[in-house]
Predict the structure.
Amino acid sequence: MLTAGEIAIQIDHSEIEWSGELRGNSLLLRLGSPIQPLIVPGAGLVDLADQASIDALYEPPQHCWHSFDLAPGRMALCQAQRPLRLGAGLVGAIGTLSHLARVGLATHIASPWVMPGWDGYLTFELSNAGPLRLRLRRDMPVARLAMFRMDGAVQPVCRHPFYGGSGQLGSRYANEFTPDGTWR
């Protein structure tokens, strides 16, 4: 794991582009805009090979938000406040700030890794595992990104045209399937 001093060196050498704060030995991540809640739970089905089915999972994004109440068991996506770019030899891991985890907030419930060459805005997968609603506020710090150096030969970075872009937060997993529904 990189120390704060090494992160600063990597920023100076343009291996990391980050205009935000550091907290300890990691980047401090804050809530930005938009925030996009998932629909109220129901008896529906999401077909992961059908993009329209995936898109129906999300409520419209809220761009001009100041606070948002996340109910127990609910989930919302939220773009990070600042963009990030990692060099080909660096990887990051997102971790919820522990004092928020202790009230039930999870910021990246299943995919904490930020892969080498990332360039854009991270999307938080906010989930409330606590017993009460949690009031989220725009710009509040919610997580940290620990940085690690890759071992071995560094592969060329392939940038996905969708992820990291501004404003579109939802899953594009259906793009992994062919038109007949088989996985690529």
